Amino acid sequence: MEIKLGDILIKKSLITRDQLRDVLIAQQGGDENLGLKRGEKLGRVLLAKGHIAPMELVRILCEQKGNIDFLLIGRYLVEPMLVASIAERVAERFNILPLVSMDKDTIIVASNMVIPADEHNEMENIIRKKIEVVIVDDKNFSDNIKLCYSTFKKRGVGSVRIGEILVRDKYLSYEELEAALRESAKTQRLLGKVLIENGKVNKEDFFQILSTQRKLPLVSAYDILPILDKNLVKSIPKAFFLRNLTVPYLKEGNKLYTVTAEPAVDLDEFRKAMKCKEVDIKLATYSDIEMILRTIYDDTEMHVIEERKVKEDELKDAPIEDELSPITAEDIGTLSEKLQKISNHLLWEAIKMRASDIHIENYEKNTAVRFRIDGTLYDIKHLQINRNNAGGIVNVIKVQSNLDISERRLPQGGRFRKKTMDGGIYDFRVQSQPTLHGENLVLRVLNQTSAFLALDEIGFSSDVKVKYEKLIKNPSGLILITGPTGSGKTTTLYSTLSILSKGLGKKVVTIEDPVEYSLERVQQSQVKDDIGYTFAQAVRAFLRQDPDIMLIGEIRDHETAIEAMRASQTGHLVFSTLHTNNTIESVQRLIDLDINPSTLASELLLIISQRLAKKICPDCKKEYRPSKELLDSFYPYGVPSGLVFYQGAGCKDCGFTGYKGRIAIMEFWFIDTESKRLIIEKADFNEMLASSLKSGMVPIIKDALMKVEAGIIPLDEIPNIVPYFQIINWKD
After folding, report:
1. Where are any strands of DSSP class E within 191-262?
2. Lowest mean pLDDT across 22-31, 588-597, 686-695, 703-712
3. Is the pLDDT reported for residue 95 higher than 80?
4. Considering only 19-23, 197-201, 420-424, 666-670, which range has the smallest mean pLDDT?
5. Is the pLDDT of residue 86 over 50?
6. What's the rounded Cα separation, in Å, for the pair 502 and 164?
């Protein structure tokens, strides 16, 4: 029996009993002032009275219907069957977004403008239902209509996702879901694991909702263990079940009974592996799956979705390779067989720990493994390699990278790609370097499946973001990003290009060294100096490809600088990078590369200088008092009253470092008329700096302090990223 709408609203404390009484009176007698007739639907009266927000009413109607399958389009809840019954051309013509059916004769639609009475009547005649329109404040409303229908076409009627249900039913906010999805993509963990481990959703609530969504019974390990047939799976490698998060527990004839924490498991793979025709699936939590597997394999140290840690004796038993002896094809096979597991475990640990680089360093008595995490190198003690096995592990990685393992006297560079068990794709860029005690390796870890950060997540302030988004719509001009290696220049550029490439009306091309990430709808090319394919040559070639927007990886020499200017002058928007300490020095660098100041002034739109600062871990954030010396350096006139400083105490989630992730500290020099005049006149550094500050430029040190005061980074991080001369000359 359907629960009455008013009862649900009262139960959820969305309206008071007095408000419900007021609504019922208006429903029975009408209200001319609000345009309500007698017998109006309760939902319409609620909206007219202003007792409930439109999306809140839609959410409650979804719950009243007992149907979990409602799409979340942006912030709108949409009933798929209703979308299916209204043609896209009708929705676009009347500028409406179908939301939900109030009953078989009445529907609710959204619009961001008032629909005239004659159009409203025409719309009802076409759709053949009574239509209630709710007005929403949405500048991107037409885009949401297109998104709704494109999503519907891709996903079909029965297509609700677990994250959408959690947002719709108020377990999460839309922002929390977006953050969890980004973390899931970056860390290659399942969305459920991210939400549960971050404390955003209770484990029982998550799996109960997943059970309803997937229409699978939810069971516990204690339901399965009494009927568990251990011998059923002992012939199959444990990794198979870890990868699928699914365990068979009973077989009767050709029917296999399984329990899973991942309902999207490939049943065909199980049928083939277990030689059965029919598979019954029940749902269980991650911890219940772990308990069942521990019982089967008598393994008290096993962790779900993590590879088993390599034991020290396995490292010792690996073959000792003479680093001066030639390597044969037979040796390569032996290396792959015996040391591949150690190598893969090393890579997997780096992914789990969010490392950007892996360093394998050989010394006289030991081999060190170090990970660069959030910009800092850490010794990873539990992964230290036995010195006698280092050569073999280096050779395994060189073989994967298509490097010559017989060549140990010269540096080499290569790459390989790995796919994780949950579908993540990682590129590993490998560089070998001969040293006194053997070959050292550095592996750059690049997550190819992570989403590019939004500009505000990178470190753009809200006012600068607005100006920047307008500026990058220019048809031509030059935008430069400066900073040392590892300062996040590529991330900023890729995030910008991902915004620009979304429109179908622009062609975007890049020339890079190297191409780090693949961008959709962007034509990317890599420099090959050994065959003469340089930045400058690539730019000249790309100009014949009719581009609108061009990224030149770096301006290193006069020839590249000239071609960048020519590309800008001929009607292209050009992005590039320089290695300078700040925005003002970039002008002098380009003049030193023999660029005419008048040409430079006419083409420059913006110069950005940036560094990367470590963010305080939100899970162990605490107040602290920086040293007096540090406070005097940055607050020479005294610390503002009420200002609180924070740092990370260190916890399991951040690896006990106190930091988690990084954010850009940025300086934006928007080139105005006065700046152009000073560039043409070759004004000195101080004159240009004074002018840019007067026109509103926020120096990089001030941006850093603003992020300190917002509790994003600790004060003692600034000396690690801001040049010393800027600190000693700082005066607010």
Report:
1. 246-252, 255-260
2. 22-31
3. yes
4. 420-424
5. yes
6. 24
> How far, in Å, CA of 306 to CA of 188, rounded?
11
| Gap between the Cα atoms of 488 and 227, Å rounded | 55
Tokens of 52: 């409930």
Q: Please state the φ and ψ torsions of residue 60, each to the nearest 5 degrees.
A: -70, -35
Task: Say if residues 480 and 604 touch (Cβ distance below 8 Å).
Answer: yes
529: number of Cβ within 10 Å: 9
Q: How many CA atoms lie within 13 A of 628 on its CB side?
A: 0
State the DSSP H helix or E strand holding residue 197, giving kind and residue range, or none if neither.
helix 191-197
**What's the total number of domains in the chain?**
5
Look at residues 84, 92, 53 and name the one whose alpha carbon lies nearest to residue 159. Answer: 84
Residue ranges making up the domain that contains 324 = 312-447
The CA angle 531-532-537, to the nearest 5 degrees, is 140
Query: What is the number of residues in the chain?
Result: 732
Question: Residue with structure tokens 């007992």?
Answer: 66
C-alpha torsion sign, points 408, 410, 414, 419: positive
For the residues of 558-604, what is the DSSP string, one character each?
HHHHHHHHHHHHTT-EEEEEE--SSHHHHHHHHHHTT--HHHHHHHE
CATH number for the domain harbouring residue 236: 3.30.300.160
CA–CA gap between residue 450 and residue 43 (Å, rounded): 42
Residue 631 belongs to some domain of the structure: no
> 3-state secondary structure string, 474-518?
CCCEEEEEECCCCCCHHHHHHHHHHHHCCCCCCCEEEEECCCCCC
Helical ranges in 266-381 per DSSP H? 267-274, 286-297, 312-317, 329-352
pTM > 0.85:
no
How is residue 437 annotated by DSSP?
A: T
Q: What is the CATH number of the domain that holds 441?
A: 3.30.450.90
CA distance 53 to 87: 26
